[in-house]
Amino acid sequence: MFSRKTYGDLSPRMLNPISDEMLANEHFSRKVFVGGLPIDINEAEIVKTFSKFGRVLVDWPRRSNSNKDHQSNRSMTGYVFLVYEDERSVKKLISECYADDERFYLLVSSPTMRKKPVQVRPWKLADMDYILKPKLFLDPRRTIFIGGVPRPTHAAELAHLFECLFGTVCYASIDIDPELKYPKGAARVTFCSSRSFIAAITGRFVLLPHGETKKRVEVKPYVMDDQICDNCYGRNCADRWAPYFCGDPSCLQYYCETCWDQVHYGNLLFKKRNTHKVYVRYGDQTK
Fold first, then answer.
1. Is residue 252 one of the residues assigned to a domain?
2. In-domain check, residue 162
3. How far apart are CA 234 and CA 242, in angstroms?
4. Do residues 175 and 193 make contact, with C-beta atoms less than 8 angstroms apart?
5. Cα–Cα distance between 142 and 87 in angstroms, integer?
6. Last-in-domain residue among 125, 140, 156
7. Angle at Cα 265 formed by Cα 260 and Cα 271, nearest 5°?
8. 140 near 71, Cβ under 8 Å?
9. Which of 174, 191, 221 corresponds to the end of one domain?
10. What does the pLDDT profile of the chain (287 residues) look like in tens digits?
C-alpha cells in the first residue's frame, strides 16, 4: 500500500494502475460518481478533464441556487455525477485511474491545487445482484423492500448483512435505472424461510454501512402488482389484481378492497386486525 503523501509527486501510472485485462469482461453504468473535487474547480474545468475519455454530461448537484453560485460556478457539494454517452468511455476513465484497495482515484488539478486525488466511483453491473442459494426457489412472498440504500452498496454486501441479522438469504438485488443502469437507492432481499422474512419486517429498521458511518433504513414487505386476492380469489373484484398487502405476521396476504374491509373491519372474531398495516405498490416502491 502506498502512502497518500506521494499523491502530488506521482502520476497515476506509477501507483497501482488498472490494466485493460482487469476491465475486459466487466460492464459498467454510463453514470459515474466523482468525489473530493477541489473547492475552486468549475464546470468547464471538470468537462475539460473528463471529456478526454469521451462525450460527457456533468450532473452537478448544488446546495444553493443563488445567482452568486451560478456566476462563480464553484463547487457547492464537492462531488459530481458524470454521464458518458458510451460505456467504453467509463472503461477509459478507469484505466487512467490508480487503485487504493478497492477504490479508484484520478489526480485532478485546479487553479489553486495541483494533482489532487479525487475518487472515481463507477458502478459495476455485476454488483447489481447476488445469488447465495442458486438451487432454491425464489419466493417473492419472502422478499423485502429496502429504501434509502446508499448507492455504493453492493448486492453481495446486503445479502451477507441480512443473513447475519435475520437468517438464510437466497438472493439480493439493487434496483437500477433502466436507461443508465445506475442504482436508484433501493434494493430487495429474498429469504429462504418465512421465519427469516417475518423477523426482517418485524424488526423494521436496519443500519447499513455508509462510509465511516451507518445509515438507518426501513425494511418493508416487497409488494407485487400481479397478485390475485388471497381471500376471494377474484370473486369480489372481477378478477382484478389485489392492490393491498397486509404486513402483519398473522396475515401476510393480498386483498382486494372489499376483502380488506371484510377481514379487517367486518369480522368481530378478529377485532385486532383493524390495527394491521396495509402496504401498497407505488411505482417501484412499497408504501
1. no
2. yes
3. 8
4. no
5. 35
6. 125
7. 125
8. no
9. 221
10. 333 333 444 444 445 556 565 666 789 999 999 999 998 888 889 999 999 999 999 988 764 444 444 444 544 568 999 999 999 999 999 989 888 777 899 999 888 888 899 999 999 999 999 998 888 888 999 999 999 999 999 999 999 999 999 999 999 999 999 999 999 999 999 999 999 999 999 988 999 988 788 999 999 999 998 999 999 999 999 999 999 999 999 899 999 999 999 888 876 666 678 888 889 987 777 77
Task: Write out the residue range of the structural domain in which residue 173 sits.
Answer: 128-221
Axis-axis angle for helices 194-203, 155-166 (nearest 10) = 90
Compute the distance between CA of residue 188 and CA of residue 173 in angstroms, rounded to an integer. Answer: 5
Q: What are the counts of helices (DSSP H) followed by strands (DSSP E) for the chain?
A: 7, 16
> DSSP 3-state assignment of 219?
strand
Residue positions counted in the chain: 287
Q: Which triple of cell numbers denotes residue 265?
A: 373491519
222: nearest Cα among 142, 129, 145: 145
Q: Please name the residue that has the C-alpha cell 454488483.
A: 127
Query: Among all chains, which residue has been given the C-alpha cell 382486494?
Result: 256
What is the pairing mode between strands 244-246 and 278-282?
A: antiparallel
Whether 236 is covered by a domain: the verdict is no
